[in-house]
Each structure stands twice: as C-alpha cells, then as structure tokens.
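Re-run requested by the PI after the first attempt was lost when the workstation crashed. Everything re-entered from the original request form. Ligand of interest: LLZGTKA7.
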Amino acid sequence: MSALEPFGTRLRHAMDERGPLCVGIDPHASLLSAWGLNDDVAGLERFTGTVVEALAGTVAVFKPQSAFFERFGSRGIAVLEKAVGDLRAAGALVVMDAKRGDIGSTMAAYAETFLHKDSPLFSDALTVSPYLGYGSLKPAVDLARENGTGLFVLALTSNPEGAEVQHAVREDGRTIGATILGHLAAENAGARPLGSFGAVVGATLGDLSSYDLAVNGPLLAPGIGAQGATPADLPGVFGDAVRNVVPSVSRGVLRHGPDVVGLRVAASRFADEIREAVGSV
Ligand SMILES: O=c1ccn([C@@H]2O[C@H](COP(=O)(O)O)[C@@H](O)[C@H]2O)c(=O)[nH]1
C-alpha cells in the first residue's frame, strides 16, 4: 500500500465531499432481533453487510463498535475485518471504536492491531482512553503519524458518569478533560487543513464554552439520536469548533433497517439536519 496522507487531511476531504456524518455500526442483540435476525454470527454478518451495502458509498465516516463483534469471538472479528475492508474500498473512512488504553508497551500492540497498515483490522483511526495517563498513548500517536492514521481520545464523553473523572480539577486548576484537550492541541500544532488527533466530546453535554475545543483536530460527537442529542444542539455545544465536529449516530440510523432504503433515508435525514445546523454558525 502506498503511504497514506495524514488522517486529518483525508478526513477533511471526506467531510467536504460527503458531509461530516459518522454512522456507528453497533449490532446490538435487540437490533438484530428487530431486523428479524438471529443473535448469532450469521445475523451479525447479514446486519453488517446490509449497513455497508446501504451506506458505504455516501457516508463519510463509519464507526464500528468493536464490542458487538468481539462478543462473537474470532468469527465476529472476521465479520468486522470484512466490513472494515469493504467500507474503505467504497471510499469511506473507518474509525474503530475499541476505546483501547494501557501502559505504553501494551498500547504499542493495540496500536499495531488497528493502526498498522499491514494489520487485518487496519482502520483509519482508533478511539483510545487516556486514563492511564496521556503519555501512555505515545506509541499509538507515533504509529498513527507513521501510517497516516489518527486517534480519537476520550476527553468529555457523552455519558453522565464521565463527569466525575473528566470534570475533576487538577492542582493547576484545569480539569482532566481540558488537560486532554490541551495535549491534543499540542499534537495538532501546525497541521493543515486539520490535525489527525481528535477528541471524543459528547453532543449531549450542553454548553461547553468553558472548554477550549480549538484543538485543530476533529471532534467526534456521539450522543445524537438514542442518547437524546439532536443535530440542532451542535452549534450550542461546540460553538466555533462545530466546523470540525464529526457527529456520530448509531441506533438512530440502524433502527430504520433492515430495509436499505430506510437506512439511506434515515442517514440522509441526519445529514440534512446536520448541514442545516452547522451551516447556521
Ligand atoms: O462518549 C462516548 C464515546 C463513545 N460512544 C459510543 O458511540 C456509540 C453511540 O451509540 P448510539 O446508539 O448512537 O447511542 C456507541 O458505540 C458508544 O459506545 C458514546 O456513546 N459516547
């Protein structure tokens, strides 16, 4: 494979061409059942293949949730591998939502799993947890730089429980979330048109004006749809940083399957609402 352009550059182009919507692939057992599928590998395969068939050619970014594939063991991982390959072959970017984080030496192995160009699970970016210390992510940052891939670091997550950690105030007066954002701004310094090191910032969080979201990198924003946030909330949550937001919707789109037209209509409705909301800033 020839060297890839940096993830941030590829993401900016994909957002310009296809819009910023990210569709999450979360094959919950309840969704498999609602689609009339069994909660087994054949059901997983059919579900995932239908999402790819319906949306891979039009949506910019996909975020497979690794947990829903891992729960089927090696055969589930095989379904995930195929989906990643098919999505990328259709011109979409893949953010693997595996939320890895460990001491540096183990982090290097996680990075090789998802961000090394020769890995079967090679993805354009990976979600990672900085809660063993931001510095523990260095092997992933380094490998991402070498391979033209990216990271999305959990900074201010969409779930209410996140606040007890992420809003905690350090001795220097900064919150943990703000500290993570600061590290990302440093990683992305000077990158054009967009850095490759993004933050996960929930769309559910309300006014974040006390946080400096100008990290010169993408802001992956889960929480739209099933968790209650809407595209119209985006400008109020993200302010000027909204142009770098990648709004992510999983169940809000997936519940419209298994009909491929239903999935397309749902994704296109979210894309339109996002365009309207973000265009208004
Ligand atoms: O802060 C976070 C980080 C990640 N997620 C993940 O996004 C999807 C949300 O799914 P919905 O069905 O759209 O609610 C899911 O995979 C989460 O693990 C998040 O929700 N919040």
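Saved to the shared folder this time. Residues 24, 26, 65, 97, 157-159, 200, 202, 222-223, 225-227, 248-252 surround LLZGTKA7 (CB under 6 Å).
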